Amino acid sequence: MTTFRLRKPSALPGFGLTLGITVAYLSLVVLIPLAATFLKTATLDWSHFVRAVWSPRVIASYRLTFTAALGGALINAVFGFLLAWVLVRYRFPFKRVIDALVDLPFALPTSVAGISLAAVYAGNGWIGQFLQPLGLKIAFTPLGVLVALTFIGLPFVVRTVQPVLEDFEREQEEAAACLGASRWLTFRRVVLPAVLPALLTGFALAFARALGEYGSVIFIAGNVPMKSEITSLLIITKLEQYDYAGATALAVMMLCVSFVMLLLINSLQWYLQRRTSRGVTAGSAPSAVVGATVAGGAQ
Question: Is residue 45 domain-resident?
């Protein structure tokens, strides 16, 4: 007689209890607040909803918020990877100090970061006084928003990529060099595929963090409507005007667009991880995988 099990036996006891606690915690912290946001937005009729989320001022804030967040995440993906590479691969004086400074945007209050950036990049600031004669104004412009979002997103990329580089086997690079691969080919065909999933994770985290940033931006942006005003500031403005339904409508729009973009990034990351794992499984040893990738790149 055949018996059926509803679930596979687990080595860890208490699956039902821990699952219940996890679902309850997730519901209280994430699901219920998000559901309340959608329910509050549902009190608006369609015409008021469109007017709240699609006015010219709101569209300008969308454009600035998503463009600056995407630009800051891309900049951090490049320079965050370079910084992680230097911290892992090289020894130099004050390395630990620089490594600790990477986490400064995590610990620094966002308002302090915004005031500091505005003081540095203002027309009479340490850096701004040299840039303004060249016609480059950063503080109180959309460029200042990009600088602030780049500043707060850098640690996400560095701390995500750094452990992967530390665990990466240097023997694979040596095997590629022995097979005649150049440094660029070795990096492109051996190092980058191993690091790319972590790099995409850091990019997604930096992008998501930048979308919701408020404190560090308002001090350096200037907050000029249709020019340097972000969506988070509009939400706060509507809350101060007791327009809770309008504020939640903007929040729902930001939530939906952010969810779609992060879903696409995570899908790409999953595809790259699956492709990398297939490549490792297909080879009998790391040297075989390196040989196949280098040969494919040489062709």
Answer: yes
